[in-house]
Amino acid sequence: MSETFITFALKKIMPINKNAWIRYLALDKCFRNTGRKFFIEDLIEACNNALLQENPKSSGIKRRQIYNDINYMKSPEGFNAPISAYTDNNRKYYRYEDPSFSILQSLLPQNIIEISKELLAFLIQIDGLAPIEELHNKLPELLKYYHIKKREPFVEFDFNYDYDGLKNFSTIFNAIANKQVLKITYFSYHKNSQYEYIFHPHYLKEYRHRWYVIGYNETINADHYVLGLERMLEIKPLPNEKYLDSTENYKEYFYDIIGVTKEKDKKPQKIILKVHPDFEKYIITRPFHPSQKNKKHDKNNWREIELKVIINEELVNHLMSYIHYLKIEEPKELKDKVKSRLKQALKNI
Q1: Is the Cβ–Cβ distance between 230 and 163 less than 8 Å?
Q2: Domain limits for position 147
Q3: 262 in a domain, yes or no?
Q4: Measured between alpha carbons, how far is residue 116 from residues 105, 111, 151 in Å?
Q5: Does 95 lie in the same domain as 31?
Q6: What is the pLDDT of residues 261-307, one digit of tens each?
């Protein structure tokens, strides 16, 4: 492709003033509607309604302007729109010859349009994507626009619809996107207490079917502060507060850990594990962590693997899930933590 989509689109839209754009979009909607015949009076009414919605003081447009708009939309300088006039009782109505055409599509290179359609068709087959409210609200409109038939999902993610934090997902998502400060009433499970924080959200992360937001906690002056979404009792936007952005690359920030807990000043350590032969292929095909290195077998055919991560509670929890297939060789700190957990588990039985 010789020019980017942005360059391509800007060449089209830059010469068009705001009122003209409002009219073109209103006409585009009419021409795509095959369920109704839009005569010239109907087109004038649709444009005037759209202009009044944008500006209540609009004086509206006349018949000649509609004809000029149609000619422009049909022209190569405009959108090459396939607009045709049809006769009904000696009156002319207007619509696209191809009802799937849109002036918005004409701004996009054809390969981008096809990729968009394929992506949307894939998304509607997936059951278990994190529910972003705006996408769900727009989905029926998008399906109709692209003439994509809704089908029963046949791709499923492991997703917990009963997870209580979902009700806060869209609020936090939008706050990050719009760089908005929040006042969050938060309940700490660990301390069994309620707190109120002024919070600057920066990053959303999912771990083991729970969602966490990471950001700057202004109340206690703590950066990289982690809050679980299900523990938020109330969220209030603070539009007059100045948002403090982050320059952190969170993908790199979380690379050295499993989960979301990263204690300040702790460094990654070399972790040596041995994996039972019956479980080896599961760990080889789905590594514990991106740093995993698969080493040699010992005389009993146990496979040695090496990780380089910071030791935290999530790492211990993760290893405990597979402990009957693992030997923890080093470091001693990790071995002691796992032993302590196992002793406590035996007491509970």
Answers
A1: yes
A2: 110-156
A3: no
A4: 11, 9, 18
A5: yes
A6: 998 889 999 999 999 999 999 999 999 999 999 999 999 999 999 99
